[in-house]
Amino acid sequence: MRVLMIYCHPVPESFNASVRDTAKAALEAAGHEVDLIDLHAEGFDPVMRADERRAYHDIAVADHPLPDHVARLKAAEALVFIYPTWWYGLPAMLKGWLDRVISPGVGFELPHGPGPIRPLLNHVRKIAIVSTCGAPRWLLLWVGDPGRRTILRGIRALCGRRCKTLWLAHYLMDSSTPESRGAYLAKVEKRLARF
Amino acid sequence: MRVLVLFAHPVETSFQAALHRQVVTTLETKGHIVDDCDLYAEGFQPCLSREERIGYHDEGANEEPVRAYVERLRTADALVLNFPVWNFGYPAILKGFFDRVFLPGVSFKLEGGMVKPCLHNIRKVACVTSYGGTRLRAFLAGDPPRKAVGRVLRVIVKPGAPVRYLAHYDMNRSTDDSRAAFLEKVRMEMERF
User: Fold this and answer.
1) What predicted TM-score, i.e. pTM, was given to this entire model?
2) Domain limits at A101?
3) Which of B11, B90, B113 sits opposite A53 (nearest CB)?
4) Would you call B102 an interface residue with chain A, using a CB distance cutoff of 8 Å?
5) Domain total for chain A?
């Protein structure tokens, strides 16, 4: 499969970078083609400005302000998001990527009258999230897992009907140990090897 | 009361901007002091930098890059969030406010690995928002912003503080009447704030 990996962490030497490298190597070893977007490295601007918002509903795909990202998204058969969970959700940087790239005409189409929105990411057959969380699992569940649900329900609804989802989290990061991190990397490698 | 209004919409002619004006003018008419924080107009930068992330847990020093915003948050008695729901969540610029300003030592303390909320100067919270999709669609996705306000923010502020969540769903098919009714509802809520 052609996998678009969206990676978001501001610290190049962070644990998340190891997660990214492990995930990418595992996918490539399994024969997948990985296209990596490193949002902080490329200095992505997550803020949708006034002009872009004004044109949001009418802009033609050909005039999209982020043509490179759109082309890479449209070429993807799977999406893998790698990020730290902050405030139970996505870092602003990644949230802004969703807002700016997955616009009408790219991710979905709004009906002119009544009726549901039409998904346009039917080419995506699988979505995975690989994330580190400071909070314990029960707390995230109680809060409603905003980050996980934004992607695995919200974005998932724009994908193919049979699109599968995968959630791999290391909880309680603030009390993690070399062993727990090692075990987590091994889990990421194992699960993505049979992605 | 001193009310910090966090507003996050880029377009001045938008419905959110109308809601924002409604919130600010109604609160002022009622005698509240409004600290109107228009994140777009102020050019707020929402991404935690490498240095900020590395120093995140150094309470005190971690406030330096966003000191002015921390001050505004600490001197407020109430908080009003005013934003559109995009992709089942806060716009990035508002999410970044939580990431960068709601720091350890500001909104919570870590004691023995446990999180202790400490933004107890905030005695009242309201949220004024709009969704493109229907309430059912938001519900099926878990309605993350409703929970982020009702279950996260509620826990950080003064225990027992009232939290109001005002939302206009289905904006993509809204009418003049539905928008006017919602503006009126927001006015009434802000009068009683």
Assistant:
1) 0.95
2) 2-193
3) B11
4) yes
5) 1
